[in-house]
Each structure stands twice: as C-alpha cells, then as structure tokens.
Amino acid sequence: MITKTTDLGDINLSLDVVASITGGAATECYGVVGMASQKIMKDGFYDLLGRENYSKGIVVEDGDTGIILNVYIIVGYGVKISEVVYEVQKKVKYVLETTLDVDIEAVNVFVQSIRVID
C-alpha cells in the first residue's frame, strides 16, 4: 500500500491500482501484444492476460527511493524488442509519475514470449 499525505488527509493507494495503471500504459505501447503471466504454463507457453488480470503480470515492490516495477509482457513478431522495452519503461514511468505522483526507482521489463500478430 502506498500512502500519500496531503493537507486534507491521507491517500492510500492499493498496489493493484498501481498494477492496473501500469498494465494499461504498457499495453498501449507499439509492439506489445499484451501482458504475460509471471509463471510459465505448460509446454513453455505463457498466459496472455486480460485487462482485469494485469496484476498477475506485474510485481510492485518498495525500493529505497521509490517503487520498483517488474513488468512481464508479450511482444509482437518482427518488432525491435529493445525499442519496445525502452518505450514501455518510458511510458510506464511517465504515466505513474503524472497520474499517481509517486517516485519510480526502476521499471524492469521481462519479455516472456513473442507472438505473431494476425
């Protein structure tokens, strides 16, 4: 839980809220097919998560100077993975800092799978 103190009182943010906003920002980036589950399913495949399950593909931790995010994504075939990962990191950091006014220490992106986009 993240707590912010203002003149009018305290604001408590659930880590699920942070995960939902992070998932929404990550899936808007070009080349990202969707969020992936952290845990491998069977036969080496990862589960593609829907909007309501973004928290299963994101781990939020408290760091020394801010929040550490571990984001698990699935990218499309034929895109430059390093560029997609960099864009996800930039967008997630920007969206969380402007929306929730929290400090981000790190955004770690893990590419779990590559999918052919129809």
UniProtKB/TrEMBL annotation:
Pfam families: Asp23. This is Gls24 family general stress protein. Belongs to the asp23 family.
